[in-house]
Amino acid sequence: MEAALFHLFSFLTLAGALLVITRRDPVNAAMLLVLTFFFMAGLFVLAHAWFLAAAQILVYAGAIMVLFLFVIMLLDAKEETRRCFGRVAGVGALAVGGALLAALAGVIRDGRLWRVPAGDAEGTTAAVGRLLFNTYLLPFEVASVLLLAATVGVIVLIRAPRRPDDAPPSA
Amino acid sequence: MIHPSVLRLELAVVGLMLAVLLGDAFARKASRRYWGAAVAAALLALAGYAAAGAGILPNASARVFTAEGGFLVDAFALWVKVFALVATAVCVLLTSRTPGEDAPGFAEQVVLQLGVGLGMMVLGSARDLISFYVSLELMAIGLYLLVAWRKEDPLSLEAGVKYLVYGAMASAILLYGMALVYGAAGSLEFGIIRQAAATRSDSIVLLAGFALLLAGLGFKVSAVPFHWWTPDAYEGAPVPSMAALSLLSKPAGFIILARLLFDVFWPLHAMWQGPVAWAGAATLLWGGLGGLSQTNLKRLLAYSGISHSGFMLLALASPTRSGVAAMLYYLLAYLLSAGLVFTAMCGAAGPGARYDLRDLSGLGRKSPWLAGALLLGLFGLGGIPPLAGFFGKLLVIRCVVSESGWGFAAAAVGGAVGSLYYYLVVVKAALSPEENGAPPIAPVGRSLRALTAALAFGLLLVGAWPASVWGALRNAAEALCQ
Amino acid sequence: MEPPGLNHWLVVSAMLFCIGAAGVVLRRNLLVVLMSLEIMLNAANLALVAFSRYGNGLDGQIFVFFVITVAAAEVAVGLAILVALYRLCGTVRVSDIATLKL
Q1: Structural domain tally of chain B?
Q2: Do C95 and A84 touch (CB under 8 A)?
Q3: Is B29 in Cβ contact with A168 (below 8 Å)?
């Protein structure tokens, strides 16, 4: 049962990702990406990462992709009419792909990986939370600064341009 | 629990960020004339406090961890914090000149620069992969925004898009490397990864992860073959953001590279030495030759930055403490000289300037002060004695000769000569008589004068009397290579 | 069918990473490029979760949590720059905005 589900979700995830990068219409691509993230959440469940499966759906499918769709509507993005592969891009793609395939072959050939037993880590919300707010409290706080910086910067960047003589609101 | 006193420098910077944000919401316009200077003064005061040990380290060889071990303060990390604070102060002062303290978005720009500086401070202390990743991304996200900051200028936005796409791709590669390293070592903690590197050096997963980590960091320090984004990002970015790219982002890349190579992956040093040396030589030559045909000062400085990255990579390729110390000295010289050049650029033109070389014509007559700063900075970058750049190059070449061989040393000298040539082209442009269409220059303010004087003094002091900093750098290197 | 081993997970994750990388390099629409970047990050997440499952404890899952946070910020920044660019130039295609030399 587990194996069948793993193969099913893996296949669907990969197929979804492939469709995302080949669709011409960005709306289609975004909706397919939402599906891909759902299948991936299924994989997370198979790995006993319960909390992450929920976070994946809530944050990725629920927040990030909605943002994407919102911007696509806002920009009125049209379908791509032509595909042009630059020479630099082609060479770069070949190099990256070659290196990754070599790494992939190495991973597959490394026989030790076949025999690693599954551990007993259960990614429940309680367990994840306990670890997050004890051992990893410091990066958690740094991440909060990161979100603050991103929020501040994004607001400035998309604020409608003000006239230079506009006085800032005074106290 | 984390004991907050270990984090006092970082907390102070966060406090400064919040103060600037709140101040921007409530302060009247007339009262913000000295904001840039005030923030920079606070940062420099913190830097002085950190340089004195910040009450955290009892002696130079001590290592203070937080209770969980994810955050380490040693002499190396403290040196990184001093560097980050000074570099952030330079960026803030440049921002208060262009676009100026009364421009919309000034406070937010300063907040982002403080965030980038904070990222570097945490990065210097990171002891596990999560702190490493999050602090690196804090820097990266701040910089994406800062590069794209001039939203009325298509060039700046495009540079932001390009930097973001390439930067995020590099981050993804880095992250995949981290995942593989985590899988092979069984832990995110640097100490355990080091043990794994010592005992399981034949694990293909570990080696693949290490290679991907190096590739991702190669992007951050614009090493060949991951350098191609640099001229575009520099050309489009406003000058203070360009300063943040080269004075904060690139040094941070070298800092974490040093931490990885000389601490975490030290057991593999026979394996990384060769590739790092080759990448260094290629980077050096690319930067030295690519800049020769440039007619734009910003692109030219990007190539100059690439060539300096090559020098520092070559320093790291000699697996000794002197190599690390030489790299740290070189970084300091780079901060002082490049800081002078950026200051002169900020003074010589307004926010929208393109900085073509012919726009510089007549600078020597219009503002001897700025032309002097530009000259001194360029000579520092080029390595003219007795400025700090000369001694930095000398130290690196000495390490290269003893560890990597004469061929690499010849490449280093060749690259240095190439870049010296294009610095002289800039000097010639700045000293040539004025052409029509060169922009007028606003009078140089007090804070900019103070910054120029301080950087020039530092450049001369560190260059003519290297012993003034060498002890501290040596301690930092000792702390790293334990 | 025998249960999947660690190498099955790693192969899926590596393939996903390649698909994402191909999307970033080959696609010209910046919105799709950003989506491809998300696919790359998710490939790394999958590898982290797999390693966490096969004997490495929960730390990998915590890492994934941080990656999701950072990815959200990254997407917000990227989309903000795209919106600003679209306001100015009316396009989000690489080929139309390539004033800077590649």
Answers
A1: 1
A2: yes
A3: yes
Q: What is the pLDDT of residues B360-379, one digit of tens each?
A: 888 888 888 889 999 999 99
Query: What's the domain count of chain C?
Result: 1
Residue C102 lies in a domain: no
**Chain A residues touching B26 at Cβ < 8 A:** 171
- What span, in angstroms and rounded, lies between the C-alpha atoms of B294 and B276? 27
CATH number assigned to the domain covering A1-78: 1.20.120.1200
Domain with C12 in it:
6-97
Q: C1 lies in a domain?
A: no
**Residue B224, in any domain of the structure:** no
Residues in chain B: 482
Tokens coding B436: 């029509």
Question: How far is the C-alpha of B214 from the C-alpha of B84, rounded, in Å?
Answer: 22
**Which DSSP symbol is given to A80?**
P
Nearest residue of C to residue A160 by CA position?
C84
Flag whether B171 is in a domain: no
Distance from CA of C4 to the nearest CA of B (A): 17
Chain C residues 26-85 with CB within 8 Å of chain A: 26-29, 31-32, 34-36, 38-39, 42, 45-46, 49-50, 52-59, 61-62, 64-66, 68-73, 75-77, 79-84
Q: Does any domain span residue B104?
A: no
pLDDT tens digits, one per residue of B182-234:
998 988 999 999 999 999 888 888 888 999 999 999 998 998 888 888 998 99
Helices B406-431, B297-316: inter-axial angle, 10-degree rounding? 160
Q: Which domain holds residue B401?
A: 267-482
Q: What is the pTM of this model?
A: 0.93
Is C50 within the bounds of a domain?
yes
Concatenated DSSP letters of B449-469: HHHHHHHHHHHHHHHH-THHH
Tell me whether 0.90 is exceeded by the ipTM.
yes
How far apart CA C38 and CA C23 sit, in angstroms, is: 10
CATH number of domain containing C57: 1.10.287.3510
